[in-house]
Amino acid sequence: MAAQINPSILSADFARLADEARAVEGADWLHVDVMDNHFVPNLTLGVPVVESLARATGTPLDCHLMIEDPDRWAPQYVEAGASSVTFHVEAAAAPVRLAREIRAKGARASMALKPATPIEPYEDLLPELDMLLIMTVEPGFGGQAFLDIMLPKIRRTRELIGKHGLELWLQVDGGVSASTIERCADAGADVFVAGSAVYGAKDPAEAVRALRNQADA
Ligand code: DX5
Ligand code: ZN
């Protein structure tokens, strides 16, 4: 699959979200970080903002829920207009049931792992998912340094996906930039979230194109 670049609006200007979404038209997805100040020590936005964003942009929304009790909340993000919903396995009470519910409502189901969470215990869950997110920073904030000790986990996950013959996408999130994206792609990632590397650039749309070219090279 060609590399997909998902700009994270966490690094955008929250007072101008619709314009900021349009500034990266041409991106594959828009990555929307939902934080509840419990699962992570930061607070961002919720269902009403996702509803408005879904109306404001034609780019599909990739909602990354860094929240407690995703079993209760994730389906509401599908109803709000998200085309892909990612929950954290550390927070989910029943990840298989939740993934099935997200899919049944018509969105892509995705599961995220914090840096200290191994992939191996979840091998049997992979067929239930459309995407797996490997965090390459501790979730909570944009602009953190990429954790290259996550590269072996990306590699092992890509091997498991191959072993089971799955179509699963493998997303990386945190510290992805011109200086780290090639290592992620080499390790087997195919969906790349980039916040500061896109919205910190003078021309965000050009930054998306440059990252995609790098990842595909
Ligand atoms: C962090 C979020 C990321 C964040 C990435 O917890 O999940 O999506 O926006 O920002 P950068 O690309 O700046 O590391
Ligand atoms: Zn994210």
TrEMBL record:
GO terms for molecular function: D-ribulose-phosphate 3-epimerase activity; metal ion binding. It catalyses: D-ribulose 5-phosphate = D-xylulose 5-phosphate. Substrate binds at S8, H64, G140, F141, G142, G143, D173, G174, G175, G195, S196. Binds 1 divalent metal cation per subunit. This is Ribulose-phosphate 3-epimerase. Its cofactor is Zn(2+); a divalent metal cation; Fe(2+); Co(2+). It comes from Streptomyces collinus (strain DSM 40733 / Tue 365). Belongs to the ribulose-phosphate 3-epimerase family. Pfam families: Ribul_P_3_epim. Its EC number is 5.1.3.1. Catalyzes the reversible epimerization of D-ribulose 5-phosphate to D-xylulose 5-phosphate. PROSITE patterns: RIBUL_P_3_EPIMER_1, RIBUL_P_3_EPIMER_2. GO terms for biological process: pentose catabolic process; pentose-phosphate shunt.
